[in-house]
Amino acid sequence: MVDTVMCRVVSLGSINVDRIVSVTADELAAYAERFDWFPDRGRTVRVEDVPEDFTVDADEIRHGGKGANQAAAAARADASTKMLGTVGRDHETFDVLPALAGVGVDGGRIEVADAPTGTAYVFVDESGDNRIVVHPGANAAIDRPYVRAQADAIRDADCLLLQNEIPVAPVEALLADLADDPDRPTVLLDPAPVEGVDPLVDAAAVDYLTPNEHEYAALGAALDDFDGVVVRKRGGDPVVVERAGERLFTVDPPAVTPADTTGAGDALNGVLAARLAAGATLREAVETATVAGSLATREVGARNGVPSLAEIEAFRSSG
């Protein structure tokens, strides 16, 4: 039975301020020539220190962070949602917490660190595809004591959303603690950025892995021992759901004209968690989440286009 009221989702992860930059092919080539770590299309890379000559003239400032984006998507899909993470003392300047509260996310456990709020530089090309450079900022302050203090909220959840934009060590310790807990939440891991994520993929408590095509290829042998469900996000191509290398089913995304693909995967993840928490079957949850991911691309910004559950259902009915 699907329960659209009592399902509970917790997202432990990053909270960012996104700086959106519209770029041409020539501008992208110039960035790639100057910085050998500059991401390819659809990739996210994390840099601990932003070079002084990495000059970015943002067209827009938006709210982001994979953790916060996924929490917002889950809340929009009618899940009772908590966000766990850290922001900087500048968070009021960017209305970071009110933005989460405005879509129904409970941010009461978010702490303030002595560092700037995390930043993502989101380069959007003329086709709406993105390349993302993340500077952790306050997200790096998430440590084992903070995560340990959230144990009650995490264990009370139906689904736990994780990503790889916060330190790995406290998340790895959390997963080890959850592994033998019969009452633990269902755990969904988005392995992005993919660098350094292997210890989380190896954790026995991870039930769902949601890589995009680049991440899926980069994980390589790490997937061989993963016995959970893999939901492969493939842009405009069908989502592939598999387990132990066996394809279970595929889901075709609806055709839309994308303005910005930033946050599409986050929308899919958040809605997937919300629907699984509500008791939906895996197929129904993936179908609903796939529609959400596609609809989210129709507006610029990681959260602006994230649809409500009612909007998703209306779209599916109209097709």
TrEMBL record:
Residues 55-307 form the Carbohydrate kinase PfkB domain. Coiled coil: none annotated. GO terms for molecular function: kinase activity. Keywords: Kinase, Transferase. Transmembrane segments: none annotated. SUPFAM superfamilies: Ribokinase-like. It comes from the Archaea. Belongs to the carbohydrate kinase PfkB family. This is PfkB family carbohydrate kinase. It comes from Haloplanus litoreus. The lineage of its organism: Archaea, Methanobacteriati, Methanobacteriota, Stenosarchaea group, Halobacteria.
